[in-house]
């Protein structure tokens, strides 16, 4: 694209919801924040209590809870109880995608007890955890041991189960891949009540590769074994400003972690962590980090910045100072670096509480931040939810690294959202073709960032109100998302399913590959027990009748495919 001027749009007439959203901060301050803080504190006490239990006790409780899940599945009457889903309330999920399927009749399975760290195995360098363990909980246990998950998603509340069944990324994903790529084994309760351990090289290897992105529609995840890596006490972070057009920014971002000579596996040339934040069509800050010891960080002349304190400037605003200050280096405590975006929810906090980034608020009430996303959803109501779907964008575009410049220009043209977040990740060439997969023949081109075994992708994070909305102009959020999804399909990109989607079933399976997923659905008898991943991600309210009709249609289609005679 050469013309980056956004299209002229007519002014939009304000309605009552606009004013409700504008003054929603009143509810957030007096209701959401106090309740959020209380819940965070109670959860913390529960985590501490769990950590004090012996391994034997935690394992015993885990086995008992698994038995309850098995019993619930075996007691289910398919004709009477409908499809299986978890008992978690629709508003509790962190993601923004539709969860209206829970409003219809379903057989609910309670997994709320599965929130324990079962074992930290130093010899195997593996953490065995239950699905409701979140990132804040696991990092609080591992970092003091100078260990960490290979990929630690930034927000504290993100759970292991969501990051596996859905999507998870972090600034280390250019080395280790997505969160699911770091999993060594899954413990799954199948539709028939069997409990299996799936690894990449045992009899359930097909299930192992099919679980990521399946949204819990192949079985119920009850534990996972996840790769650990050794870490140091600090992150040495370099802030580097990049000024130019969007293509220049894209190239500067690529050069920050992908050597042009193709030596992508050389730890001397590739940083441990990478992210870039784009503040306007002409300004960005690239950040690269490397683990550093306490001794190095505390050497004379080095600057230590504890970004986790409640009164500190929000991280994205602090990083923006590099545009005026120029390149600089500082040391951040490792765990505080991992969760640097938690307090302000990237930059969404600015929309939720417009003055929460001010010094006086940070000093007085910053310790209450962040509001729990689940409570924000629980207090928004149907009208506000629809407003956000139309007037707000929370999307991630996973695109090949060499197409990042095109993606940035597209987002500017169609959505005009800033800041933008860039985070690279490897997409591996696996023994089986999974729902997301590299471009065919990528290993022949060996573009910047690619290796023989993986193609480098980038998450373009688009989170904020579009420019037209901020200027009071008309904006069709559904149409913008629809165009984005078409662009991703045409450019071999992917859309994480936590977000609101406008995809039809046909286009959904153009974006994702259905082969292995549908094979496992039939082989492990998930059809008729768990809804399909498209149906679970589909936008819109579902009545009981619609649920029954779609269940039956899916069953008939699946059985027809199974019953077809072999050629």
Furnish the topology, listing elements before pairings:
Layout: H1 16-22, H2 25-52, H3 55-75, H4 78-81, E1 84-86, E2 107-109, E3 117-121, E4 126-129, H5 135-142, E5 147-149, H6 160-165, H7 173-176, E6 183-189, E7 195-198, H8 205-210, E8 220-230, E9 234-243, H9 246-255, E10 273-280, E11 283-292, H10 294-297, H11 315-320, H12 322-325, E12 328-333, H13 334-338, H14 349-352, H15 359-365, H16 373-378, H17 381-391, E13 393-400, H18 404-414, E14 420-428, H19 442-445, E15 454-464, H20 467-470, H21 477-490, H22 505-511, H23 515-523, H24 533-537, H25 544-563
Order of strands across the main sheet? 12-9-11-10-14-15-13
Oligomeric state of the chains present here: single chain
Return the structural class: alpha+beta
Main sheet attributes: strand count, strand direction, barrel closure:
7 strands, antiparallel
CATH C-level label of the largest domain: Alpha Beta
Weakly predicted, low-confidence segments: 562-567
CATH architecture of the largest domain: 2-Layer Sandwich
Output the CATH topology of the largest domain.
Uridine Diphospho-n-acetylenolpyruvylglucosamine Reductase, domain 3
Shape: globular
Radius of gyration: 23 Å
What helical percentage do the residues reach? Answer: 25-40%
Q: Can you count the helices?
A: 25
- The pLDDT mean sits at 90
Which strand-content bin applies to the residues?
15-25%
Strands, total number = 15
Q: Whole-Å distance between the termini? A: 49 Å
């Amino acid at each position: 694209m050469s013309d980056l001027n956004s299209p002229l749009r007519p002014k939009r007439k304000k309605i009552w919801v606009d004013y409700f959203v504008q003054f929603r901060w009143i509810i957030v301050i007096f209701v959401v924040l106090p309740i959020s803080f209380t819940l965070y504190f109670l959860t913390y006490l529960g985590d501490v209590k769990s950590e004090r239990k012996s391994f034997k006790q935690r394992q015993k409780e885990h086995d008992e809870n698994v038995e309850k899940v098995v019993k619930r599945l075996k007691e289910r009457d398919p004709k009477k109880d409908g499809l299986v889903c978890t008992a978690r309330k629709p508003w509790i999920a962190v993601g923004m995608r539709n969860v209206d399927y829970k409003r219809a009749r379903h057989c609910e399975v309670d997994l709320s007890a599965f929130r324990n760290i079962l074992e930290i195995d130093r010899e195997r360098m593996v953490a065995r955890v239950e699905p409701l363990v979140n990132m804040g909980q696991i990092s609080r246990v591992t970092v003091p041991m100078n260990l960490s998950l290979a990929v630690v998603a930034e927000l504290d509340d993100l759970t292991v189960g969501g990051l596996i069944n859905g999507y998870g990324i972090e600034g280390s994903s250019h080395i280790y891949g997505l969160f699911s790529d770091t999993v060594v084994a899954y413990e799954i309760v199948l539709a028939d009540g069997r409990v299996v351990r799936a690894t990449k090289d045992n009899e359930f290897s097909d299930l192992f590769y099919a679980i990521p992105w399946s949204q819990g529609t192949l079985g119920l995840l009850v534990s996972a074994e996840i790769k650990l890596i050794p870490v140091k006490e600090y992150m040495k972070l370099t802030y580097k400003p990049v000024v130019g057009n969007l293509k220049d920014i894209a190239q500067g971002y690529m050069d920050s972690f992908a050597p042009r000579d193709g030596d992508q596996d050389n730890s001397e040339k590739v940083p441990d962590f990478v992210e870039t934040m784009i503040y306007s069509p002409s300004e960005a800050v690239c950040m690269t980090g490397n683990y550093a010891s306490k001794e190095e960080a505390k050497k004379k002349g080095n600057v230590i910045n504890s970004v986790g304190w409640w009164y500190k400037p929000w991280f994205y605003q602090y990083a923006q100072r590099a545009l005026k200050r120029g390149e600089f280096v500082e040391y951040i405590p490792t765990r505080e670096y991992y969760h640097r975006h938690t307090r302000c929810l990237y930059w969404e906090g600015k929309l939720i509480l417009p003055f929460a980034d001010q010094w006086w608020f940070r000093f007085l009430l910053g310790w209450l931040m962040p509001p729990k996303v689940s409570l924000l959803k629980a207090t928004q109501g149907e009208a506000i939810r629809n407003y956000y779907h139309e007037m707000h964008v929370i999307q991630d575009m996973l695109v090949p690294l060499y197409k990042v410049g095109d993606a940035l220009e597209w987002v500017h043209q169609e959505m005009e959202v800033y800041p933008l977040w860039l985070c690279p990740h490897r997409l591996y060439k696996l023994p089986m073709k999974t729902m997301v997969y590299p471009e065919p023949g990528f290993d022949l081109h060996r573009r910047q960032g690619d290796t023989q075994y993986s193609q480098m992708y980038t998450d373009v994070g688009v989170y904020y109100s579009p420019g037209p909305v901020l200027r009071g102009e008309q904006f069709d959020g559904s149409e913008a998302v629809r165009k984005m999804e078409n662009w991703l399909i045409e450019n071999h990109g992917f859309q994480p399913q936590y977000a609101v989607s406008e995809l039809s079933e046909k286009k959904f399976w153009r974006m994702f590959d259905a082969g292995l997923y549908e094979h496992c659905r039939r082989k492990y008898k998930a059809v008729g027990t768990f809804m399909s991943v498209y149906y679970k991600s589909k936008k819109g309210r579902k009545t009981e009748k619609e649920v029954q009709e779609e269940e039956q249609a899916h069953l008939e289609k699946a059985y027809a495919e199974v019953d077809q005679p072999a050629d």
